[in-house]
Amino acid sequence: MTIHFLQSKAAKTLSLAQVFRMTESEAETAFRKIRWQDTDGAAVCSDCGGLDPYEYRRPTGLLRFRCKACGKNFSITSGTLFASHKAPLRGYLAAIAVFMNEVKGKNALALSRDLGMSAQGLLGHASQAA
Questions:
Q1: How far apart are CA 23 and CA 2, in angstroms?
Q2: In which domain, by residue range, is 124 found?
Q3: Are 48 and 123 in contact (CB under 8 A)?
């Protein structure tokens, strides 16, 4: 049985200090390795599970993928609670580091204060569903 990517060893050993030292490119690589741990960071289609998407960048520099199997476009955050939000990947990695290293858990309001981000922007759909 596959564990959720936020419970992976890579997510659990991520420190806040590491995240803040990362460039955006390093954050992208780290997020990919946490997100797609079974393929060592190689993208997997969030719609059909296709293993052979090609990647491209938008003019803004945002990394996108297009699945060769089903033709769907997706991003590194598609299919996660971070989907459809525009925060930088370093912000999401910081949230993962804080959340995973907190002994008794962390509520969304405290996390948003710690990271200087809105709880809505940080957790999006998860905070709406609660």
A1: 29
A2: 5-41+79-129
A3: no
Side chain identity, residue 24: E
Q: How many other β-carbons are positioned within 10 Å of the β-carbon of residue 26?
A: 15
Shortest CA distance to 85 belongs to which of 120, 44, 58? 120
In a domain, 118, yes or no: yes
* Domain contains 87: yes
Q: 72-129, pLDDT tens digit by residue?
A: 999 999 988 888 777 888 888 888 888 777 767 777 777 777 777 766 555 554 444 3
Q: How many domains does the chain have?
A: 1
Structure tokens at 111: 């996390």
Walk across the sheet containing 54-57 and list its strands: 54-57, 63-66, 73-75
Let me know if residue 64 belongs to a domain: no
Q: What is the pTM of this model?
A: 0.74
